[in-house]
Amino acid sequence: MSMISIVIISGTSVSNLGACLQSILRQQCKDIEILVLSLSTENENVQLVNTFRDYFTGFRFICVPDTPQINSQFIFELGLKNTLGDYIGFIDESDCFCPTILGKLSSIADSHQPDIIFFSHNNDALDLAGNYDNESNRAAKKNLLKSDPDKLRKLYRRDFSSGKNLSKYTMESCVQSHSLHWVSTLKAVSMSIIPAVGSYNLADLNEFENEGKFQQIADQYLLLFDYINITFVEYKYDLLVSWLLYLLRLRPLHGDKKIAALCIKSNFLSRYKEQDFYKVTESLNLGKGERNLLREWYSYCNKKKFRVPHVLNQLLPVQLYQYAKNNDSGNVLQKLFDRIYFRLPDTIKLLVDFPKKNIRKRVSNRELLEALESLTKQSKFDRYMSMINEDCEKKITKHLSEIKQELTQLKNSKFTENLD
């Protein structure tokens, strides 16, 4: 089992810190290590921490002077140095965990071992200070896993975190607008996300009234879906639910015909298998007409093809151009593919039909780059073998010519002897 280290940044609120520690204690999770970094020297915090020491196998308390020099990066490095867990997460004293979240985090850490695990929780600890089964807390429990950026937290794998500048350890460094640029800058190749069903609604009806804005939101969904080597835990279904609900909410504004055209153009529904799509639509509380409409859009998305003026302009053009140029493949990428298209393996032909420039299905940047690398190596190898064969052929021809010349000379000499 992977040990999880939780670093709690504590200020002066004893009640918030107590509720936070209670929410962790109720999980009854054994592989948990607690480090409280107190920015206050009040005796009440020390007394509260002492009451919890006996309940955790690993529990530490460090007083940190609250000065301008104590920034988030300093706290992050201090947390790494004073903990031993395989994963480390930083939370505020006002954070409160839902009843089963730590067990789920531990399970994900053991099974997937991602670089980063994103999870959400209730930010208002006071609402959960009582019994989890209390009637007054049922409403709060429904909001435990919201996708509000202020409520997103992260667990970092220790060996991934070492040596990185992971400042702004709380809400400031969360994935704003669900853009994964922040994750890519950290060179993270895998991560897990635990959201709530239907909570990831990227769209605001007041902001997306034209095709450009609609395509922008569709691209954000595709980015989440296609990000390389991400393990989405309980996520892809939630992403589809929020997208379908968004489409249905747009119907009164634009009409079915307009929404159908935008939906088909976005190419998002086709990312799901038919069985998964039907499973999600059946789980939604929709009328028969709406359910049939969604299925109709889904069938259209699976049948359509995109025509583009130049397929390579859509697929990482700068990196591909530089790669081909650096590998002596010519200044124009199309020439490379034109020369070797008929020798492409079937797996590549199924991805992109280069002569007709039709995208048969979405090709990830890494997939195409690997394909190009393979093709470039194969092209170099073929040229090399061709040079060897040509050289060999010249040598053989020259040797045969010499033999022929010797035979001719021998024949002529014998003919001369006979004459004599």
Question: How is this structure best described in words?
Answer:
The chain has an eight-stranded mixed beta sheet with strand order 3-2-1-4-6-5-7-8, with helices on both faces. Strands 9-11-10 form a three-stranded antiparallel beta sheet. It folds into three domains: 1-196, Spore Coat Polysaccharide Biosynthesis Protein SpsA, Chain A; 197-304; 311-414, no CATH class. The longest helix has 55 residues, at 365-419. The protein is built from 16 helices and eleven strands. The chain has helices at residues 14-25, 43-52, 72-81, 101-111, 138-142, 158-161, 181-185, 211-226, 236-254, 256-266, 274-283, 288-303, 317-326, 333-340, 346-351, 365-419, and strands at 4-10, 32-38, 58-63, 87-92, 116-120, 152-157, 191-194, 231-232, 306-307, 352-353, 358-359. By secondary structure, the protein is of the alpha/beta class. The protein is flat, with a radius of gyration of 32 Å. The model is unreliable at 122-149, 168-182, 196-203, 227-234, 304-321, 328-333, 336-344 and 348-365 (pLDDT under 50). The N and C termini lie far apart (102 Å).
